């Protein structure tokens, strides 16, 4: 009977020892700080096995080029202890481990961050209680986060690079806008020139060239002036032929005069004699006998 009870207790003890605490570190898994700032890491603990148990909290630090090393520890009696290089006064003034909520929340503060503080921070918690007048560890738990310290020079360089990239993007957009405007202006100019050229060409094509030509006198002796309209000549090959086609025909200085035919003109005395003869003949026909008139006509 006693052996069975002892075996049961041993089994329960094994279950409790194998059980793990739920430990979480925040912020994480990666957090960035600027050089000179103060960093605060939180270690959350839950799922304790025993209500009357105590917790021992330890913080470890591992830089990229070194192994994990114990920094600071809070014992089950809430006593803070420093280890290694962190036990020196210069480091102790920059580290602070506090219990915010009993058995639930612990904070680690790193003041005035330096580039050497960059690395992984691990929080390990151990649950301890008395069993048969001996301190016994019942469960363990751990969690980690990565802290990156950005130097001021690197921050300035990164901000300068960002500004440079944004300005380069703005310059590209400005150049593209200028190019688009130039292309638009050139397109408008070409369109305007095309319209002007088409209008001028259509006017030249529809316009007729008029020339004055003096013709020789007609049969009545008058000089006739005629108007001739010539359509624009088609373009010919060769510069000389084109110039000859554009020159209007020469106008003669004086039109040739045709030979004039003079009509016979009657003298005014002859016209009066003829009229008197007609009047005399009419009087004779009216008053003289026919025989005398015949003799007169024969005699005339």
UniProtKB/TrEMBL annotation:
InterPro entries: Ig-like_dom, Ig-like_dom_sf, Ig-like_fold, Ig_V-set, IgSF_V-set/TM_domain
Predominant location: membrane
Taxonomic superkingdom: Eukaryota
Protein name in UniProt: V-set and transmembrane domain-containing protein 4
Residue ranges constituting the Ig-like domain according to the UniProt record: 21-151
SUPFAM superfamilies tied to this protein: Immunoglobulin (SSF48726)
Keywords from the named record: Cell membrane, Disulfide bond, Glycoprotein, Immunoglobulin domain, Membrane, Secreted, Signal, Transmembrane, Transmembrane helix
Residues annotated as transmembrane: 173-197
Membrane topology summary: Single-pass type I membrane protein
Signal peptide: 1-20
Gene3D superfamilies to which the protein is assigned, alphabetical: Immunoglobulins
Protein purpose: Peptide Lv enhances L-type voltage-gated calcium channel (L-VGCC) currents in retinal photoreceptors.
Source organism per UniProt: Canis lupus familiaris
Cellular component per GO, a single term: extracellular region
UniProt subcellular location: Cell membrane; Secreted
């Amino acid at each position: 009977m006693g052996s069975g009870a002892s075996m049961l207790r041993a089994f329960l003890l094994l279950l409790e020892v194998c059980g793990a605490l739920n430990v979480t570190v925040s912020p994480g898994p990666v957090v960035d700080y600027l050089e000179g700032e103060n960093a605060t890491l939180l270690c959350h603990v839950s799922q304790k096995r025993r209500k009357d148990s105590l917790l021992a909290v330890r913080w470890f630090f591992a830089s990229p080029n070194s192994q994990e090393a114990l920094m600071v520890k809070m014992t089950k009696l809430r006593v803070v202890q420093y280890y290694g290089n962190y036990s020196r006064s210069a480091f102790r003034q920059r580290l602070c481990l506090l219990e915010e909520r009993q058995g639930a929340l612990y904070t680690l503060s790193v003041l005035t961050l330096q580039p050497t503080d960059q690395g992984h921070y691990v929080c390990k918690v151990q649950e301890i209680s008395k069993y048969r007048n001996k301190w016994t560890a019942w469960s363990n738990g751990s969690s980690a986060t990565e802290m990156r310290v950005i130097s001021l020079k690197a921050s300035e360089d990164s901000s300068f690079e960002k500004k440079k990239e944004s300005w380069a993007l703005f310059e590209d957009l400005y150049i593209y806008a200028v190019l688009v405007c130039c292309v638009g202006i050139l397109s408008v100019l070409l369109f305007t020139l095309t319209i002007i050229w088409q209008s001028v060409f259509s006017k030249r094509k529809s316009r007729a060239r008029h020339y004055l030509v003096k013709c020789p006198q007609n049969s009545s002796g008058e000089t006739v002036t005629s108007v001739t309209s010539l359509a624009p000549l088609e373009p010919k090959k060769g510069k000389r032929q084109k110039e000859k086609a554009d020159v209007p025909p020469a106008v003669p200085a004086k039109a040739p005069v045709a030979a004039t035919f003079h009509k016979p003109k009657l003298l005014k005395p002859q016209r009066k004699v003829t009229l008197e003869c007609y009047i005399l003949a009419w009087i004779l026909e009216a008053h003289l006998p026919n025989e005398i008139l015949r003799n007169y006509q024969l005699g005339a």
